[in-house]
Amino acid sequence: xxxxxxxxxxxxxxxxxxxxxxxxxxxxxxxxxxxxxxxxxxxxxxxxxxxxxxxxxxxxxxxxxxxxxxxxxxxxxxxxxxxxxxxxxxxxxxxxxxxxxxxxxxxxxxxxxxxxxxxxxxxxxxxxxxxxxxxxxxxxxxxxxxxxxxxxxxxxxxxxxxxxxxxxxxxxxxxxxxxxxxxxxxxxxxxxxxxxxxxxxxxxxxxxxxxxxxxxxxxxxxxxxxxxxxxxxxxxxxxxxxxxxxxxxxxxxxxxxxxxxxxxxxxxxxxxxxxxxxxxxxxxxxxx
Amino acid sequence: xxxxxxxxxxxxxxxxxxxxxxxxxxxxxxxxxxxxxxxxxxxxxxxxxxxxxxxxxxxxxxxxxxxxxxxxxxxxxxxxxxxxxxxxxxxxxxxxxxxxxxxxxxxxxxxxxxxxxxxxxxxxxxxxxxxxxxxxxxxxxxxxxxxxxxxxxxxxxxxxxxxxxxxxxxxxxxxxxxxxxxxxxxxxxxxxxxxxxxxxxxxxxxxxxxxxxxxxxxxxxxxxxxxxxxxxxxxxxxxxxxxxxxxxxxxxxxxxxxxxxxxxxxxxxxxxxxxxxxxxxxxxxxxxxxxxxxxxxxxxxxxxxxxxxxxxxxxxxxxxxxxxxxxxxxxxxxxxxxxxxxxxxxxxxxxxxxxxxxxxxxxxxxxxxxxxxxxxxxxxxxxxxxxxxxxxxxxxxxxxxxxxxxxxxxxxxxxxxxxxxxxxxxxxxxxxxxxxxxxxxxxxxxxxxxxxxxxxxxxxxxxxxxxxxxxxxxxxxxxxxxxxxxxxxxxxxxxxxxxxxxxxxxxxxxxxxxxxxxxxxxxxxxxxxxxxxxxxxxxxxxxxxxxxxxxxxxxxxxxxxxxxxxxxxxxxxxxxxxxxxxxxxxxxxxxxxxxxxxxxxxxxxxxxxxxxxxxxxxxxxxxxxxxxxxxxxxxxxxxxxxxxxxxxxxxxxxxxxxxxxxxxxxxxxxxxxxxxxxxxxxxxxxxxxxxxxxxxxxxxxxxxxxxxxxxxxxxxxxxxxxxxxxxxxxxxxxxxxxxxxxxxxxxxxxxxxxxxxxxxxxxxxxxxxxxxxxxxxxxx
Amino acid sequence: xxxxxxxxxxxxxxxxxxxxxxxxxxxxxxxxxxxxxxxxxxxxxxxxxxxxxxxxxxxxxxxxxxxxxxxxxxxxxxxxxxxxxxxxxxxxxxxxxxxxxxxxxxxxxxxxxxxxxxxxxxxxxxxxxxxxxxxxxxxxxxxxxxxxxxxxxxxxxxxxxx
Lengths: 288, 780, 162
What we know:
The structure holds 3 protein chains of 3 kinds. Chain B is of the alpha+beta class. Chain B has 19 helices and 31 strands. In chain B, α9 runs parallel beside α10 and α10 runs parallel beside α18 (737-749). The longest helix of chain B has 28 residues, at 532-559. By secondary structure, chain C is α+β, with helices and mostly antiparallel strands. Chains in contact: A-B, A-C, B-C.
């Protein structure tokens, strides 16, 4: 690979944040798993002057399972998610997305923060995290702030992260007792494929009524997004097939897919409708 | 499992000691421990690193090409453009042919003034390091003025279409005219007409094209390269303007070929820069280079019009096949010839017209790929058989049964294949192999499909194909085989070793096979066209038998018996049924050496030599022989999303005689993957000739999660023209897979997707079309 | 040009030193040091031919920068075993015909070793999931699945004996 850049390898978070802060007009990028970034650099899509390797930053690893919330470090890898029985319990949609994420080697190195920060509309971990109401901690040398993942994406490949910030932590509230959290990845093959349509759903119910509905879609809009139009139709109601159809239609209406090499916009919209219906109906059945 | 249910008379030759056993291949230990050097693993001191700079549009005039900045970069040793070698062209026609005149289809080595396809090479760079070569490639400046191109073969045939080739874009046309087609249609109770489309396909060998070249002390250009064809030394020499004996091609174990390393790839570039710089040069394609740097499988548009009686007997067949040849000729004239001959499939059709044409476009050029036109024909004729069966309401296997070509019957070209035709046995076993049906579940429907095939093995007879092998026995009783044959991963050399040691009565661990060196191993011809085992296996068998005859004669003298009382086995020579009369092979060899009896043999095997098929009627012998078999699959289809999953994949092939059953199964299982990707997920998308899927994340071959375990049912008719009655399995393994899948999808959803790959989206569209037709409304 | 730096890589148990720029990938560095058993298939993390173990974890060496591997233990297919003392996976692959052209095999055996290290008794689904980042064009994977299951059984038996 020919791509002249400088590389800092700090051994703690303070060092990493300091390295990111010392921009001086350079293009500085954090390097976590590199499974997207190295590919983009080789293809000339990214031309950093300097990179900050995060391998040695142990503060970004680890998981916490509190009474109310679950939090994972930004450098948690996709494989880390798969190895955790607690995550399997607390975020089944995230585990399903992780399972179908790249191949073994990519899962071993690709990180949750990296997947979020890539800004790809096809980022597989994001729809599950959106349906879990995930919150990000963005930290720079000067400041720390938290931001709902739902507010993170501003537009195609545009996000709220400043160049000197790292996504240090991702957290979400524990799922309510009677809830279902699922994800379906539709792709052109089963193993290691870019998502054509991704749908994640969280439903919670109490007393025969849907108390919470979260529906998030991948690859059908410039960013991974929730379809609140559809969620609003479901919350506070007892779900019927007609209502679920209506929500699925609302999701299909709300998405803004494009034609690309993997599928047409029409097909994507069709599958959003079909999969939203299927996932919501399946979740509701399980809650009943 | 292996079936040999044939007449007992043929069982005499099954007392093999080596052949027919699933032995560990001779190349396996080196490969699994990382010891095997591939062509890209060779380096030399003082070596330069190459890059190819390529055009980024598909049809253009080269207005300006400025390599001065690239040349000026520190560490750049050489940059060549067409201006440095204005008349250099390289051959694109059939490689390694013996004696025939080349077609007038050479391609400029580098673009001179006209770019005809995306990625066509503009300049060759050699530099001290790869980084510098990469950097220099980015400094090559060029201006390309777009010229209207044509990207669809049907458009290319229209009057006034942009001209890519010749006066009318027609690269080649072939015909079969046999029987009376009009009368046959008149007699038909039903005529079924459909058009099927097959796509481009990328070979996707895991080892990208790579080579190392240097000029030796004899001024010979040596090229160590990943190739299926070391006989390219001749066109390489022609291309760089040196005598044939001044180029030596050495292969290595090839990291996958599938036809994609049949044409020359990096050889001429390497040879030119080795000559120009006087230093060793290495060129390794990136994956993107590989996607644009070698020819693809021809997309075909195939229209089948079939007349049948209500009992299901085919009375007439009229076929039109249009193949996209891309921007240069390469093997297109031969690919459509294979398609032509294969047009009716393994069925008896006495009234048949076939028209096959290859048409130039500004798409990537297309050339050899496993199945070589016959596979595209199979994709159509086997879908057509299901369409006919459904239209007649006859069981799909039964319809086939009523039409199968049988042993001793003439095929489309009037030629009677010399071997057994066991299509029916294969079809029944494959179909039965699917076992109990998997039930449908909600929106997940299931379906089953079958496809049968006829596929040649061995090259076109007018090429007058030959193959040589040398077999010798060393002073300690170990065996050496020398043959130019290339091993592209199917176990070609191990099988040839297995044949030699069978004849000489030693075990496989006692043989070493030297192969793939155009200067020192006897030329064996190409590893293409499912010919390596057939041709070189026969040559090795002949050589081993010649050597054995001499050894046996001397042993007979020693034991005082007649030569036909002697056998060789277990590394010993002995009198049959007289255990006391035995001696170690090594002792016999020592006697022979002491007496000056020749301990080696060089043999040449000649395939049947023939002429071109009659240009008007297509009658004659195209190939030495044909292989037959069947593939059956069960799929599930999600009727809401269109996703298809292959649940079961069962193949049944008559391979004649297995040399190594594990290797045969490996070919079948790999063919199943190759064909499954072709049917479902592999898609090369071009926009105005520009490839927009140049990576393995965009071009999707089946992964370990997508492939079912493939069940292999091997039948042995021992009737083939290969060694010990072997046929071939390299190409046949793949031929019927895609139509079996297409038929299974149609079975599952009740409507056919006429164009491959059968993407989820195409499935959904087909279902919508069907729903609309049933409900009398427009598609959504 | 970017800065070059001397780094020491521990490869198959031996320390090896090389001088590399920051953008040099581990794949390039390993091959530059003569470890030709590590194969280049796509340089994009799509094919797995270049997989190695890094501190026991399978990674695509084409997506790993050499500097980032400094001080870590790199294991290639040749580090698992050799012709004289093959690893059970290597034996199983050779004996079952799971290697055809063989170019993908160094990466696949590395992935297989990682699969078994994590789960000594992998199901077929575990094997499929573990191999989804390793492309093979020759075998259709059938014999590869069988070889991995055989080797895992063999390794469990060996482990039991010890």
